[in-house]
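Notebook p. 47: complex prediction with zinc ion.
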Amino acid sequence: MDKNTLLQVWPIPAFDDNYLWCIHDGVSALVVDPGDSGPVLDYLAKSQLTLKGILITHHHADHTGGILDLLNTLGPQIPVYGPAGDNIPGRTQIVKEGDHVEIDSPRISFQVFEVPGHTLSHIAYYAKSQANIAEPMLFCGDTLFASGCGRLFEGSPTQMTQSLAKFAALPKNTLVYCTHEYTLSNIRFALAVEPNNVDLISWSEKAQALRQQGLPTLPTTIGQELQVNPFMRSDQADVIAAAKTISEQEELPSPAHVLAVIRAWKDRF
Ligand code: ZN
Ligand code: FE
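Predicted complex, structure tokens below:
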């Protein structure tokens, strides 16, 4: 395989709304968060790909439930990368903030971010542009969604704010591979927060058209999320004003306070 051949990233749909992302070079493949093995095995067989590694972002079953069956079916030698601190079935490599995951085939290097919030040990995998990657790529699990963010099952609003700030610092053209198709319902909520956000209004129309054609709304980009995602905009005047109104609080002293209000609002929206 020519090392400059561009890598491909494909969504393998699973359950109701999960995407299991497959990164491949036409021969060798990685899969991110295989919550189910069947759709992955079907995709690998149909595309004649050999699975060379599994990347896990967090311990929830819809992201880990297929690991052991993939290893049993395709070989126990396949490395499984994942965070410390939780039981990840079949995990062979614990990775943490600042670690680099170097894969030979498909040829790719990831930097690991610790992004607590949705779960405490949640991590994300970032690949900067390389010979075979035109735009940087982020595999963010259930931390960031198109126009939304993950529920705070284990972490605090402060942790989620800091985790999203790590993503906000990445290049704007970074492609963000979220793990659920939640976009249309996230947009409905985002419009309640920022009804006058023109970027959000045009994104809403585009996203609806994609879904009507049965197409994923993903990947999104960091630049786009900074324009339309209320959870990435908790320092913006309109979002702060909406959070003050809904919470009937006169002061929300930090972005984390704002995020806490809009996350709780979304939870009951
Ligand atoms: Zn989850
Ligand atoms: Fe999930």
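Notes: The radius of gyration is 18 Å. The domain at 8-268 is CATH 3.60.15.10 (Metallo-beta-lactamase; Chain A).
Next step: compare against the earlier run before touching the bench.
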